[in-house]
Amino acid sequence: MKTLPYPGFPTDLQQPMAVLMSIASGQSVITESIFENRFKYVDELRKMGAEIAINGRVANITGVPTLSGTKIKATDLRAGADMVIAGLIAEGETRITDIQYIDRGYEKLESNIRSLGGIIRREAIEKKVED
């Protein structure tokens, strides 16, 4: 898959496609031809067990049977939404930090996901105050 200007494949959809490709059988390739540094989210998917190798603007993805829930972070708006998708398809619990990115672009995300049958909740995290 290669991202291209309209009417080609939109760069904004390469991240959710990478999540889906990470659990698809076989090999997949994403070439990002629009933006540099569009693969920042890959490290978070790797924490979940995704097998993704980055070489410049190309991501080589080897599908795995399942992703595993773990603690990950949203690195930007789109990546945050994709971490939610990854968490929903992962085995076990996924905790996503830096959700301010997600909140910026998605209204009522939890209730929308619950209405589709997804299990999701928001937890407040107390910040430690250093003396």
From TrEMBL:
Class of the enzyme per the UniProt entry, highest EC level: transferase
Family classification: Belongs to the EPSP synthase family. MurA subfamily.
Enzyme Commission number(s) from the entry: 2.5.1.7
Pathway: Cell wall biogenesis; peptidoglycan biosynthesis
Keyword Disulfide bond: no
GO molecular function, one term: UDP-N-acetylglucosamine 1-carboxyvinyltransferase activity
Protein name (Swiss-Prot/TrEMBL): UDP-N-acetylglucosamine 1-carboxyvinyltransferase
GO biological process: cell division; cell wall organization; peptidoglycan biosynthetic process; regulation of cell shape
Enolpyruvate transferase domain boundaries: 1-111
Main location (coarse class): cytoplasm
PANTHER family xref list: UDP-N-ACETYLGLUCOSAMINE 1-CARBOXYVINYLTRANSFERASE, UDP-N-ACETYLGLUCOSAMINE 1-CARBOXYVINYLTRANSFERASE 2
Record Gene3D superfamilies: Enolpyruvate transferase domain (3.65.10.10)
Pfam family, one: EPSP_synthase
Subcellular localization: Cytoplasm
GO CC, alphabetical: cytoplasm
UniProt key word Amino-acid biosynthesis: no
Reaction(s) this enzyme catalyzes, per UniProt: phosphoenolpyruvate + UDP-N-acetyl-alpha-D-glucosamine = UDP-N-acetyl-3-O-(1-carboxyvinyl)-alpha-D-glucosamine + phosphate
Keywords: Cell cycle, Cell division, Cell shape, Cell wall biogenesis/degradation, Cytoplasm, Peptidoglycan synthesis, Transferase
Gene: murAB_15
Spans through the membrane: none
Lineage: unclassified sequences, metagenomes, ecological metagenomes
